[in-house]
Amino acid sequence: MTVLDLFAGPGGWSTGLRALGLSETGMEIDPVVCATRIAAGHDTVHADVAAHPTAPLHGKVVGLIGSAPCQPFSTAGLRAGNTDLPLCHQALDDLARGNDTRTALRAACVDARSLLAVEPLRYALDLRPAWIALEEVPAVLPLFEHIARLLAGVGYSTWTGVLNAADFGLPQTRRRAFLMASRTRAALPPQPTHADGGTPADLFGDGLPSWRTMGDVLGHPPGEVITRGNHTTGGNRFSTTGPSWALTGRARSWLLKVGSRPAATRRRLDQPAPTLLFGKAMNHVGWIDADGTPIRRLTVEEGAVLQGFEATYPWAGSRTKQFQQIGNAVPPPLATAVLRPLASSASLEVAA
User: Which residues on adjacent β-strands are paired with residue 257?
Assistant: First the structure.
């Protein structure tokens, strides 16, 4: 029995599973991304999810993971997927009735990639895994809700909703839609491990620590300090600890800017990063001073760490391709949080 990861990407889900002592087989169409996965030690099949038959997998899949390409629905793209949503809903209903109309509906889509969002249901209905975990940009939540209704009709407990990665230890306020489903127990969302500003202890627990910041994971030059505020108005100074491999120079007033527009998001080092987007604006994701003066672009190592990977993760391909993989990956800490109540318990039960 194996866990099957559709649209596996560079290994966000894989790394999240590894933290639970589990592994999976990832299906990925991009050869460069496959090279990253293989270098990281993740089992990989180079294949097209939409063209792959499910029959050879019958009786072999205990868990199903899916993060279809988000470009058709992402706010960073043209969002053609929004136009294609009715066709995606039709494809879901047709698959549930045993009528595979994907080829005809794909030809009618503005962006053919939109229909990839329905592939996890095809695999789920054919393979009936013990559990399922899907992730996408929030705009896909209506499709997840539709899939959840269809899965409930064949015996799954389901949950759908939007999770903020900062609530689970990632130094980034990244919001993503999730679907969780299980045939063995109630599907419930993971419990947050962090909170904006933290929560106080009470009779029921110790409370939650504050969101992690970019400074927490990237470190600062030895002996430097950060000011909560800016370098002209002052603020509360505190000493820094942690790794200093990433940031160089006087970093107390640095901000991370994501985007090229005047209103682009800016975050201080003592805050979580905004959602990291590495599309056309990739060269405009970088460090600026408090007065807006550019310092340098974000490095691949910094982007990886802010996404929850190790700084030494073996990204393959060009710099552009490496950033693309980072931005598309499921953050491993968030993957671990989502998979813990599904994968560990269900896998043990099936093995028994």
Answer: 266, 286
- d(CA 113, CA 68) in angstroms, rounded, equals 9
Tokens 């230890």 correspond to 169
* Domains of the chain listed by start with CATH number: 2-196+330-351 (3.40.50.150), 214-327 (no CATH)
277: which 2 tokens? 């987007």
106: amino acid identity, one letter: R
Nearest partner of 275 among 265, 287, 286, judged by Cα: 265
Q: pLDDT digits over 211-245, tens only?
A: 999 988 987 655 555 554 444 444 444 444 555 55
CA–CA separation, 55 vs 9, rounded Å?
A: 23
DSSP secondary structure of 144-175 = HHHHHHHHHTTT-EEEEEEEEGGGGT-SB--E
- Length of the chain equals 352
Nearest-angstrom CA–CA distance, 303 and 168: 18
Alpha-carbon separation of residue 57 from 3, 22, 52, 174, 299 (angstroms): 11, 19, 10, 33, 40
Average pLDDT over residues 107-119: 93
- The beta-carbon contacts of 245-248 under 8 Å, at least 24 apart in sequence, are 245/219, 245/301, 245/311, 246/218, 246/219, 246/299, 246/301, 246/302, 246/305, 246/311, 247/218, 247/219, 247/220, 247/221, 247/287, 248/221
| Dihedral, CA of residue 239, residue 246, residue 214 and residue 309, to nearest 10 | -130
| Both tokens assigned to 107 | 């030809």
